[in-house]
Amino acid sequence: MTAAATPVLAAGIVCWRVVDDKPRVLLVHRTVHKxxxxxxxxxxxxxxxxxxxVREIHExxxxxxxxxxxxxxxxxxxxxxxxxxxxxWAAEVNDHILELAKFTPxxxxxxxxxxxxxxxxxxxxxxxxxxxxxxxxxxxxAGNARTFAMIAVRHGKAVPGExxxxxxxxxxxxxxxxxxxxxxxGSIAAFAPDRILSSTAARCLATITPLAxxxxxxxxxxxxxxxxxxxxxxxxxxxxxxxRLKKQKSTVLCSHGPVLPQIxxxxxxxxxxxxxxxxxxxxxxxxxxxxxxxFARDTKKLRLVAVETxxx
Length: 312
Hints:
Mean pLDDT: 95
Shape: globular
Distance between the termini: 20 Å
Radius of gyration: 20 Å
Number of strands: 13
């Protein structure tokens, strides 16, 4: 595929905060383009899109945010004929984040503006930004804007079992697996996990170590997520998942191919969610991939509101 035919990938965020019991969203006034839009930016080499979103928003606005519910993507054609796809998330901006942010007008962004949704819809320069704002409005009105995440990770590419002389649990990552671990760390960190749980297998612990270093979180290794302790009834996994859901804290669960369907299945069952294509994709991860299941926070009944899967 030629460079001209390669799509441009980008990520953006609907940053929102509540003022007088109503949401306001952040718009950026762009210097060169002389337009008003949602903050976004292009994917850098070695990144996945969630990391791009958080990095770009920090660079453009000074805000250090954590990703919430995904808002889908928009597609349009650039002036040079290339297709561009921009993936969006929502992110709440509290007073502390706002206080710490430092914005200086620059060659890219001349000013920032917080507006109620109705005014923001009229102010943005592009129809596709209106579409994204409408998606956020629907999420907010449904009570699904504040969420916590359960992040299921399959370990990176490991040395094949048939070529490894030691116990299966001691198989290390291959170079490809080490690269995958480094790549996914930034994007998992974009969801600001509070806890990291991992299988006791060496390949899982190695996969999640870059994330632990980046977030300064301790890894809790547990046999409940290990392949050696796998049981077809999934009772141990179900109990572990129920405990984490009760705490409503964003949690990373790094495990193995046979165990991941039990993790996702337990999350779906706990939220009374009928399995669909997104959930099936979330359960059948390739090595080095991860899925994020978003649950509405502070609800009487557990509610799964979005599922996204990312490939390393």
